Amino acid sequence: MIESIVSYGLAVGAVYAMIGITYNVMFSASRVFSFTSGMLGMLGGVLGALFITRLGLPVVVGLGLVLAGGAAIGVVTEFVAVRPVLKSLEQHLYVLSTLAFALMVQQVVAIKFGTDAQPFPRLLPIGPGLLDQQFWLPMLACAATIAGLEFLYRRTLVGRAFVAIAEDSYAARALGLPEQGLRVASFALAGIIGMLAGFTGAEMLLAFFGNQPILNFYGFVPVALGGMGSNRGAVAGGLALGLFQQAANFLVGGIFAAVAVFVVFIAVLLLRPEGLAGVATSRRV
Amino acid sequence: MSTKQRVITRRQVLAGSAAGAAALASGFPAPAIADSDPIKIGYLPALTGPSSSTGIGINRGTELAVEEINAAGGVNGRKIELIVRDTQSDPTKAVNAVAELTQRQKAAIIFGPLNSGEALAATPLIARDKVPMLHPCWVDQLIDVKKYPMAFRDAPTNQQIGGAANQYVVDVLKLKKVAVVSDTTGYGTASVDAYVPMLKAKGAEVVFSGNIDAANPDLKPDMLRMRGAGADVIMPWSVNAGFLARILNTRGAMGWDVPVVGQTTLGSGQTKALLEKPDNWNKVYSNNFRNVCFSKDGKLPARAQEFVERLRKAKLDMGDTLLWWIALGYDAPRLIAETIKAAGTSPEQITGYWNKLTAWPGVYGDITFTPEQHNGFQDNEVIMCEVNSLRDGAFNLAPGYGS
After folding, report:
1. What pLDDT does A218 receive?
2. What is the C-alpha to C-alpha distance for residues B337 and A66, in angstroms, rounded to an integer?
3. Where are the domains of chain A?
4. What is the pLDDT of residues A213-239, one digit of tens each?
5. Cα B378 from chain centroid?
6. Chain-chain contact of A8 with B210 (C-beta, under 8 angstroms)
């Protein structure tokens, strides 16, 4: 029982964490909370199954195409659903525009790919067991993502520019940073991370159009728990969510597991609205 | 496949509207040409969209039957014209199509919709326009002789589907400790609510019943709970292939050797594609129909055998669909044609004839209607089959049934 809680919990948690990071990367650069994150996760599984199982491409090529597709969709999201509404950000129109874009993509998937869950190929020729790749692949991808982001944000000039935009976009623009270009780049990056989450988690979650709302929601929880914009918080929140959810499955079971997750989520938000790892932002007067 | 069918559909539509335009232009009063006019059957399959695999299968049978009837001279010298409106698996489209078929096209009868969701939306409208309808959808409420006196069903109800599964578990397999599970959809929860009391009434002990979130990738906790409760058979009610495959895969991984008995999706290609190993499909029994299943000696009943040979002659593909879908599609136009031939085309004539229909021999089932009972399928023709025995679109009867 413990082994099942840990292996499934951490694996699912890693997927949630990566979706949370996808939210964060887009949020940092644009202050837009884009509900295309779950869509990216869903597409990672669906496109992976399409390229590798249906079209018979090698795993590496399939992964490359999926990630490239993620970057492309990220850029399209920025142009179609974010840029036009940024002018009136105060009205939070982006919530509707990104959600509408995500729902349209989901409908296209439902019609073209089908509404039934479909199998996702085994990526590596390693047999099933406790150390099954469906468990460690998402964890590995999550670790690689967080390490890559830390390196990008702390060690590279482009990454520092991202951080500058996230801290204060007016000041960054005043310094001559190309705000729009950086925003497009961050949406492309988020596209890649979201797709990677879906791709590595798909052996467990299957290639299924219905994964979109689930990932949208369970990916949002770690962001809320960990604090908006905090990637380390998202990882901690995601893994905790996965473990808690799986433990609840064993302890209370069925639909009550989901209820338990909601209860804890609401309780945490009431006690610490800024998130477990977040710092309450002080407003400058 | 579906594109090709849509082209044909459009062509038929064009032909139909051209004929209509010609009739208008000629200016003859309608009765003068009525006797040689084609008899219009409104037809509402879902040929595209998420629930279209059933519709595409049924459509092969329907088109074949209409071709055969017309090739043999039609009905009393009149051809049958199928007016096809693809519902695209969308209740809204079905509703719009109903208005067109009943009011503009003046269809004598409507066959369909073929999916319950669309039928739930369309049935009240067809009833309001006082056009007879025949459909194969399972949802119980679709037939109600008071509300919809002209609606008839030539397929089983959900009650019969659940009853057959329960009967197999309790009377044939002689198992008494049952776990009943479903996903959290409306269909799933309604099925558990309906079938658990039926099982208890048959003397079974329901040791576990519950709705499981189908999004949950790991069903082991719930399956351990079922095993802990002492279940010796699992009855899942869901049309979600992913959910069903996870039950079968978890059963395999746990090495738990219990039969799984339930709805037809258990035997679908989508479920099969998600199995971790082929063995996980052993001891899985899904609903099917006595008239289109292989018996112990590997033979189909005579009527179905003759039908399969006819399909082969017409070069109709069965490998990618199910025999019972084609058979069901094939029966409807024949039943309608026979009715019109014997009774006439008015709604009262059709309804009156059907209210006295007894054991009409279809390929899919023997249909009997009475004025009080418009569910025409017989209880004993709903049976369980072995899902891993699929060949040429048909299954073996599950073990335990007399030949």
Report:
1. 92
2. 53
3. 2-116+127-271
4. 999 999 999 998 888 888 999 999 999
5. 14
6. no
Residues on chain B touching A118 (C-beta within 8 angstroms): 270, 273-274
Number of separate helices (H) and strands (E) present in chain B: 13, 14
Could A249 and B221 be called an inter-chain contact, meaning their C-beta atoms sit closer than 8 Å? Answer: yes
| H/E stretch holding A8 | helix A2-30
Cβ-Cβ contacts under 8 Å, B51 against chain A: 115
Would you call A117 and B240 a contact, using CB atoms and an 8 Å cutoff? yes
pLDDT tens track, chain B, 403 positions: 344 444 445 555 445 454 444 444 444 444 434 567 899 999 999 998 767 888 989 999 999 999 999 999 999 999 999 999 999 888 999 999 999 999 999 999 999 899 888 999 999 999 999 999 999 999 999 999 999 999 999 999 999 999 999 999 999 999 999 999 998 888 888 889 999 999 999 999 999 998 888 778 888 889 999 999 999 999 999 888 889 999 999 999 899 999 999 999 898 888 888 898 999 999 999 999 999 999 988 899 999 999 999 999 888 877 778 899 999 999 999 999 999 999 999 999 999 999 999 999 999 999 999 999 999 999 999 999 999 998 888 999 999 986 4
What's the rounded Cα separation, in Å, for the pair B344 and B333? 15
Residue closest to B239 by CA, chosen among B183, B301, B311, B319:
B183
Instruction: Give the tokens for residue B145.
Output: 């002789």
CB contact (8 A) between residue A255 and residue B211: yes
- Is residue B24 within 8 Å of residue B65, measured between CB atoms? no
Collapse the DSSP code of A88 into the 3-class scheme (helix H, G, I; strand E, B; otherwise coil) and give the result: coil
Chain A interface residues (partner B, CB cutoff 8 A): 1, 4, 8, 12, 110-111, 114-119, 128, 204-206, 208, 210-211, 214, 246, 249-250, 253-255, 257-258
Single pTM value for the model? 0.80
Between CA A203 and CA A123 the distance in angstroms is 9
User: Can you tell me the distance from the alpha carbon of B372 to that of B336, in angstroms, rounded to the nearest whole number?
Assistant: 20
Residue in chain A nearest B212 by alpha carbon: A254
Cis peptide before A125 (omega within 30 of 0): no
The Cα of A203 is separated from the nearest Cα of chain B by a number of Å equal to: 10
Task: Work out the minimum CA distance from A127 to partner chain B, whole angstroms.
Answer: 11
Q: Kindly report the average pLDDT of chain B as a whole number.
A: 88
Q: Say what the ipTM of the complex is.
A: 0.77
**Cβ–Cβ under 8 Å, residues A41 and A190:** no
Interchain contact, B50 vs A255, CB within 8 Å: no
**Residue B33 confidence (pLDDT):** 44
Which of A111, A116, A258 shows the shortest C-beta gap to B241?
A116
**Taking CB atoms and an 8 Å limit, are A8 and B217 in contact across chains?**
yes
Q: How many residues does chain B have?
A: 403
Contact assessment for residue B323 and residue B392, using Cβ atoms and an 8 Å cutoff: yes
Rounded distance, CA A12 to CA A204, Å? 8
User: A2-116+127-271 maps to which CATH number?
Assistant: 1.10.3470
CA of A252: how far to CAs of A7, A175, A240, B41, in Å? 19, 55, 17, 53
Q: Which residue of B has its CA nearest to A258?
A: B213
Calpha distance B381→B160 (Å, rounded): 10
Structure tokens at A244: 């808690």
Least CB-CB distance to A208: which of B49, B242, B273? B242
User: Are A254 and B273 in contact (CB < 8 Å)?
Assistant: no
